[in-house]
Amino acid sequence: MLRLTSQIIVFILFISAVTISSLRAEVPVFNSESAWNYLLAQCEFGPRNPGSEGHVKCRDYLKDELLKFTGRVRLQPFTFYDSRLRKNFDMYNIIADFGSETGAKIILCAHWDTRPRSDCDPDPAKRHLPILGANDGASGVAVLLEMARMFAVNPPPVPVQIIFFDGEDYGREGEIWDYLLGSKHFAKTIDARDYRYAVLLDLIGDEDLEIKKEYHSYQYSPDLMERIWKIARRLGIDQFSSRIQLPVIDDHISLIEIGIPAVDLIDFEYRYWHTQEDTPEHCRQESLEAVGRVLTELIYTEED
Ligand SMILES: [Zn+2]
What we know:
- The chain is of the alpha/beta class.
- It contains nine helices and eight strands.
- Helix 2 packs across helix 4 and helix 7 (222-235) packs across helix 9 (285-300).
- Bound molecules: zinc ion.
- The site of zinc ion has 4 residues, from loops.
- Residues 115, 136, 169, 274 line the site of zinc ion.
């Protein structure tokens, strides 16, 4: 009798192990090498600020790349008038859908534009130059392009919308109304009830990545934030820190304002922020991997 019981216990343990491993097997592996190549590919276009040649080329590249992974890609054009320059700028959000065509969507987003000036460069003579934006622009987009590639092979269990926002970093220091242009435009065109939540990536490629709990996200989307940090802890990803980050004005604000819970994954302590030195050599593949793994786990453990 005793023997039989222990055999049954062993059997039950075996079955649960099989079940757990088969559940785990459904979470694909995030390919950080491919993500890193996406970071480099964007930087090869040079600065990607609105009005530049790199902006047009990178827009087409991002659209074409997404079209390899889903037929549901669209550009959302809008115009921004810079009253100082007395000039119109054509801007484009790039939107791609994955998974079921019905049900509330999860937004994964990042800004794809780069800053038209290097206002924090230590050399005043360089401050009028546009930045390359390897971390500030390319890093978040790189992780999401790789997620898109993954979604094509392993459709997500829930509808996911990847959005690359334009015009996030256009504004001059202190003139906050000229920032977040793409996300503000996007927020005016949607019904928040069609969305579950949003995760924004910005400045996540830093060579010594530490993602703290950004205060606006912490304040307005505590449950989502807790879920993300719990996943990071479970996976042993220590780039996610339990310290609080002072509030950051970023694209998640545009979504929070219309009632979509949103978390900004950002490492705001980047030495080369808004300088000519925001280049791939100050970024790391491991940082993209840390964020990519957490996002992959978040999406594939989501229940429909
Ligand atoms: Zn920036």
